[in-house]
Design brief:
- By secondary structure, this protein is mainly β.
- 0% of the residues lie in helices and 55% in strands.
- The protein has no helices and eleven strands.
- Strands 2, 4, 5, 6, 9, 10 and 11 form a seven-stranded mixed beta sheet that branches. Strands 1-3-8-7 form a four-stranded antiparallel beta sheet, with no helix packed on it.
C-alpha cells in the first residue's frame, strides 16, 4: 500500500506561479512512476505530468513549457512547479503513484488550484 498526501494548492492570479507537493509513504519501493492528474468541473480527469523512477518525464501538451515535475531520489516526494498559470488550469489536482508490481494506481485526496483575478 502507498499513501499520498498533497499540499500547495490555492488561489493565484493569471500569470502567477504555484508549487504542488506530494508526500508518499508506505511501500515506496514498489512505485515505478509518480505524477499529477487534474479534474476540472464537468470534465474527465486528465494527465498533467508524470516522472518515472529512472527520471523520464512526460507532460500534457497543454502544460509543456509552463509546468515542471520533479522528485527526490527516493521517490518519497514529487513536486509540480506551475508557472504562467491560466484560468483553464483551474482544477482539482491529484497526486498519483503507479506500481507495476500488482499493478495498482494510488491516489491522493486532491488539492484545489484556482486561477482567477
Amino acid at each position: 500500500q502507498v499513501q499520498l498526501v498533497e499540499s500547495g494548492g490555492g488561489l493565484v492570479q493569471p500569470g502567477g506561479s504555484l508549487t504542488l507537493s506530494c508526500a508518499a509513504s508506505g511501500s515506496i519501493s514498489s512505485i515505478d512512476r509518480m505524477g499529477w492528474y487534474r479534474q476540472a468541473p464537468g470534465k474527465e480527469r486528465e494527465l498533467v505530468a508524470y516522472i518515472t523512477r529512472g527520471g523520464s518525464r512526460n507532460y500534457a501538451e497543454s502544460v509543456k513549457g509552463r509546468f515542471t515535475i520533479a522528485r527526490d531520489n527516493a521517490m518519497n516526494n514529487v513536486y509540480l512547479q506551475m508557472n504562467s498559470l491560466k484560468s483553464e488550469d483551474t482544477a482539482i489536482y491529484y497526486c498519483n503513484a503507479y506500481s507495476g508490481v500488482v499493478p495498482m494506481d494510488y491516489w491522493g485526496q486532491g488539492t484545489q488550484v484556482t486561477v482567477s483575478s
